[in-house]
Amino acid sequence: MTAKKFDQQLLSLQDKLLYFALSLTANDDDARDLLQETTLKALTYRNQFVNNTNFKAWVFTIMKNTFINNYRRDQKTRNTFDSTEDAIRVAYKHNYASETPENVYAVNEMSSKVEKLDDDFRIPFKMHTQGFKYKEIAEKLDLPIGTVKSRIFFTRKKLQEMLKDK
């Protein structure tokens, strides 16, 4: 396919692509951004398009994959942990403005209970609440990943028992 024909076909699909982008994003600005990114990728990778195949499906697949990749990246960004010293509070608190004395007490009590645990359980648990993945913890502590998972699991169980209302 010639470059001119490629460009013409891509331009003829813009309205349909915008409609598809709106169905994915449900937001006009995000849809236009997705359309622009898709068009740029299609132009950038035009040499990867195989002649005599479905051009429309190729471009729509680029848009769908771009949307999925952006969504995953946004989810990862949204789920990253703050690296503050007070990792338990960061992990369990969503709105610092509404901190109540009861919540502060509960977090402090939980932190003190965690500090009383043996190093074998405390260290992997704290690393996990700081956002480390099981594999990273296993590598840093030179332990099998199954051991790390079980220690974190048992630490949660111990904390539940220790924090039960009596």
UniProtKB/TrEMBL annotation:
NCBIfam families in the record: sigma70-ECF
Domain RNA polymerase sigma factor 70 region 4 type: 114-159
Family: Belongs to the sigma-70 factor family. ECF subfamily.
Provenance organism: Carboxylicivirga linearis
Statement: the UniProt record of this protein carries the keyword Transcription regulation: yes
InterPro entries, sorted: RNA_pol_sigma-70-like (IPR039425), RNA_pol_sigma-70_dom (IPR014284), RNA_pol_sigma70_r2 (IPR007627), RNA_pol_sigma70_r4_t2 (IPR013249), RNA_pol_sigma_r2 (IPR013325), RNA_pol_sigma_r3/r4-like (IPR013324), WH-like_DNA-bd_sf (IPR036388)
Keyword entries, A-Z: Sigma factor, Transcription, Transcription regulation
Lineage: Bacteria, Pseudomonadati, Bacteroidota, Bacteroidia, Marinilabiliales
Keyword Transcription regulation found: yes
Domain RNA polymerase sigma-70 region: 13-76
Name of the featured protein: RNA polymerase sigma factor
